[in-house]
Design brief:
Number of helices: 4
Number of strands: 8
Shape: elongated
Number of domains: 1
Helix content: 25-40%
Largest sheet: 5 strands, mixed
Structural class: alpha+beta
Order of helices and strands: HEHEHEEEEHEE
Strand content: 25-35%
Distance between the termini: 87 Å
Length: about 190
């Protein structure tokens, strides 16, 4: 009987250790039904599109920049891979109904959940792009303190790194988001 109890305790300890080594998926909002592909080609297109829009703006004084969901998703995935501990993995970015929706997987300890972040974009009084966090859904996980500021800072960094330098000397006028495309228009100053 003593050997049986020892075997059972060792078995239970082994099962417990295996469980602790794994992450447990606990749900969250659903990803979009159609997956947006991630590619280095889309990141290249994103950069080329910006350069072409800025070059055209320098010639005729008007800027029109069109960005797709695949370009934004791929760019975000690339930026997150550069981070030692990204706040989310497996990003998907949709551009619908005037909103930028970012979906991803977040991990907190042994728990993993799908999250969604809804952003709005517009142009401020000085003709600069602003992006604001409208809502964050971490599913059953509590939203970590300061996450809204961290996400805003990450988005601001991505903007500064990607669109910011290209927008120097430009005054943006509109941002339209619909049907998988974000269109930014402006004029040279």
């Amino acid at each position: 009987m003593n050997r049986t109890n020892t075997k059972i305790l060792l078995l239970l300890a082994g099962i417990l250790l295996v469980m602790l080594a794994c992450t447990i998926f606990i749900g969250g909002p659903d990803y979009p039904t159609t997956r947006i592909p991630v590619s280095t080609e889309a990141v290249g297109e994103f950069r080329s599109t910006m350069e072409a829009a800025v070059a055209a703006g320098a010639l005729n004084g008007e800027l029109t920049l069109t960005i797709t969901e695949e370009q934004l998703t791929s760019y975000l995935a690339m930026k997150l891979q550069e981070q030692a501990k990204p706040f989310l993995t497996d990003p998907q970015v949709t551009l619908r109904d005037g909103q930028i929706k970012v979906f991803g997987t977040a991990q907190q300890g042994y728990f993993e959940a799908t999250i969604s972040i809804i952003l709005t974009a517009g142009v401020n009084d000085t003709g600069q792009l602003f992006i604001a966090v409208s809502s964050i859904d971490f599913g059953p996980l509590p939203v970590p303190e300061g996450i809204r500021d961290a996400i805003s800072a990450t988005i601001e960094e991505a903007y500064t790194g990607a669109i910011g330098p290209a927008a120097t000397g430009l005054r943006l006028e509109t941002v339209q988001i619909d049907d998988g495309v974000m269109t930014i228009t402006g004029r040279t100053q």
